[in-house]
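Private note to self, pasted from the team thread so I don't lose it. Backbone tokens:
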């Protein structure tokens, strides 16, 4: 016990702790600035704020265009995340059972991660124009599933490492079908991985702007794209307020999912 305490007081441990704290501060500082700026009482963004007010939150929720984009982003994110998680679960199961061919199959399934998002958007723009789904909710769902499914797949693959084949074999020996084994044995073991994949997919979909530049239509503008175009001619803290709402929504989903499903580890089971 004393040895562990001594190691934590060593210069190397203290230096590592300070470095870790600085990295976290560097990563969280932009979020903190946005959250503080959202309460700015000024007409233009400036930091630090000279006064505090909720006026920009009121302006955001009173703006019909922003509300329409917010609900579209939420709906799109939830649908795309649900589909990506379901497909990712099947793909992850296939990867875990594919043996020697898993490397090639995994490369194929994760291919959208290796291609620049701009090229993906351009390819979808041409494909959706040919399929006549440009600017539609269906087209946007298909596009977002394409870019979010690799995250869900990778998370499920990691979660499947916690599944012992002997457990599934025991269920089969007791008379369970493949579907019953998957639903009653495998899913409870990997539910943390499934929810983590869902959250990853939701965050990627909800914050996407590159794909939206290519596949959005006049009546289907997501919130990130709305903010991007809005900032071209308006530099008010309304942008910070809208961004703060996005941050709070994403953090709320993560906290609620962690409370309900327990995300301490990909394969955790309570």
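Design output:
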């Amino acid at each position: 016990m004393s040895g562990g305490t001594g190691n934590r007081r060593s210069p190397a441990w203290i230096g590592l702790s300070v470095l870790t704290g600085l990295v976290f501060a560097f990563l969280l500082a932009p979020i903190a600035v946005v959250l503080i700026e959202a309460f700015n009482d000024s007409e233009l963004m400036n930091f630090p704020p000279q006064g505090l007010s909720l006026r920009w939150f009121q302006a955001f929720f009173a703006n019909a265009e922003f509300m329409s984009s917010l609900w579209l982003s939420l709906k799109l994110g939830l649908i795309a995340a649900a589909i990506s998680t379901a497909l990712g679960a099947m793909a992850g199961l296939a990867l875990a059972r594919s043996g020697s061919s898993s490397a090639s199959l995994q490369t194929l399934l994760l291919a959208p991660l290796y291609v620049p998002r701009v090229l993906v958007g351009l390819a979808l723009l041409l494909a959706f124009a040919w399929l006549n789904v440009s600017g539609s909710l269906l087209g946007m769902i298909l596009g977002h599933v394409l870019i979010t499914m690799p995250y869900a797949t990778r998370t499920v693959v990691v979660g499947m490492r916690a599944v012992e084949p002997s457990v599934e074999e025991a269920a089969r020996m007791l008379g369970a079908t493949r579907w019953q084994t998957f639903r009653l044995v495998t899913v409870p073991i990997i539910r943390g991985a499934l929810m983590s994949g869902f959250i990853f997919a939701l965050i990627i979909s909800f914050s996407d702007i590159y794909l939206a530049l290519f596949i959005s239509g006049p009546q289907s503008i997501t919130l990130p794209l709305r903010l991007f175009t809005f900032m071209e001619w308006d530099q008010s803290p309304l942008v910070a307020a809208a961004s703060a709402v996005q941050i709070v929504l994403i953090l709320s989903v993560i906290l609620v999912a962690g409370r309900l499903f327990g995300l301490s580890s990909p394969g955790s089971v309570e």
